[in-house]
Amino acid sequence: MLTVVKKSPRELGDWLATEAGFIAGLCSFDGEPIVLEPYQVAFLENRSRFRWVTKARQVGYSFIVALEALARCHLRDGYTAVFVSYNLDDAKEKILLARQVYEELPLAYQKKLVVDSKTELAFEPIGTGGRISRILSVPSKPPRGKKGDIVLDELAHYVNDRQVYTGSTALILRSNGQLTGCSTPLGRRGIFWEIATEELRKYTHHRRQEVPWWLCRFFCNDIERAAIEAPTLETEERVARFGRPTIVEQFDSLPLEDFQQELECRFVDESYSFYPYDLILPNTREDLTLCDDFSDLPFPEGRLVAGFDVGRSHDRSELAVFEEVGGRFICRLLRSYDRVPFAEQEGDLIRMLNTLPIARLSVDRSGIGMNLAENLGRAFPQVVGEAFTNASKERWATDFKILLQRRDVDLPRDRELVAQLHSIKRRVLPSGNVSYDAERTNRGHADQFWAITLACQRERGPNRSTEAEVGVRVLG
Fold first, then answer.
1. Coil, helix or strand for 32?
2. Strand 303-309 relative to strand 317-325: parallel, antiparallel, unpaired?
3. pLDDT in tens, 162-188
4. N or C of the chain: less Cβ packing under 10 Å?
5. What are phi and psi of 473, to 5 degrees?
6. How far apart, in whole angstroms, are the C-alpha atoms of residue 373 and residue 386?
């Protein structure tokens, strides 16, 4: 927590003329004064040309970069900040944050807002002859032609991370600006990892900051002790000793490697994953919009294929619908069934089969899925019951990896989905058989992944349906 005591009006004025002072002294959010964390103050006071922040999720960096830009727009004339984000929704969110805090500024300190859109804010000049100050926010593309300070938020998650970084360095050289790379880790790969760890070569002009969960008061019950003791402890012990309930819940909900990467600034070793990030990310699309319901999906140009993984007592059932066009699989709908009775799940699948021209629906018929698969198969000839064995899972996982290698899959750019694909590991069992699976958590067991691979599997044998059809249930 930042506590400020000022002795004179001049000293107060000098403090308000800094980014940290402007934010802590004048800004509010949801009617509450903004209290800066020590690491946020250190970030604001960092004047290096290159700032490099490895951080846990939800520690307030998207918030603080938005506030820093807002403060600089009010403290400087002709200032420009450019946010580059993981996707368009994240880009809009930063503008929304800055806009809300702007609305809560004291009127005496507000510059007039002259451009107000979802991806840009612009403020009137200081005095006559001055220049407009702007905040621009764009998805993960090189910000060409936009000189000023540049923030690459969640850089490790970009598909084109190296191109974005290279384009950004050229812009700050011409504008004498500041470049900030800020991200949670995503494997030992990419330009963010290279600069953060310097394992391949030195980046001497980059000033680094690392913010794990135990430095944030919302997650840690004793920051001062944790800053000293937590780095020497194993993850489980430091969570037990210093974690608030929100962190304990996250620890229980994620595989250990994912927790360490998402919240403890650990760059995980990708050699154990069957689907490395560099294989997954090029198959994700920012502009891919999924349908919310079966009735929303337009009539397909190709074949609709679907996979349904039946959840066990602690897992969700997952449905994936893809459109296959010339050997390319485009994701159209993903749906989760969390603690939904099996009768309702079956009813929803019947509605889908009666609504959409599904050419094939592959349904997990192992264990509790057997009854559902048999019921659907009797009424709809395009329903195929699939047995989950080591051999079949190896076939599906390999088919999907080939599609990824060929870049013949279009997936939504979603962090949770990427994490689930990356969680799949190939293990050789003592029997000599091969196992493909992910660590079980209270969020599931890579169930969405298996629904996707069921949908996208290579269809073998002479019975492949080339024509889409809507199944009709005959009663009586």
1. strand
2. antiparallel
3. 999 998 888 887 778 899 999 999 988
4. C
5. -85, 130
6. 8
Could you tell me where the DSSP H helices lie in 187-306? Answer: 190-197, 223-229, 235-242, 245-253, 256-263, 277-280
User: What gap in Å lies between CA 370 and CA 10, rounded to an integer?
Assistant: 77
- Tokens found for residue 169: 């360095």
| CB-neighbour burial class of residue 459 (10 A; exposed 0-12, middle 13-18, buried 19+) | middle
Cα–Cα dist 16/106, whole Å: 13
Name residues whose C-beta falls within 8 Å of residue 335's C-beta, 6 or more positions apart in sequence. 318, 319, 348
With CA atoms as reference, report the closest residue to 408 among 398, 397, 396, 400.
400
Instruction: Give the span between the Cα atoms of 201 and 104, in whole angstroms.
Output: 45
pTM: 0.77
The CATH code of the domain at 9-211 is: 3.40.50.300
CB 454 within 8 A of CB 308: yes
Domain limits of the chain?
Answer: 9-211, 223-268, 277-456
CA distance 315 to 102: 43
At 245, the amino acid letter reads: P
DSSP 310: P
Domain boundaries 277-456, CATH class: alpha beta
Tokens of 189: 């790969």
Rounded CA separation 337/344 (Å): 9
Residues 36-71: tens digit of each pLDDT: 999 999 999 999 999 999 999 999 999 999 999 999
* DSSP assignments along 347-402, one per residue: HHHHHHHHHS-EEEEEEE-SGGGHHHHHHHHHH-TTEEEE---HHHHHHHHHHHHH
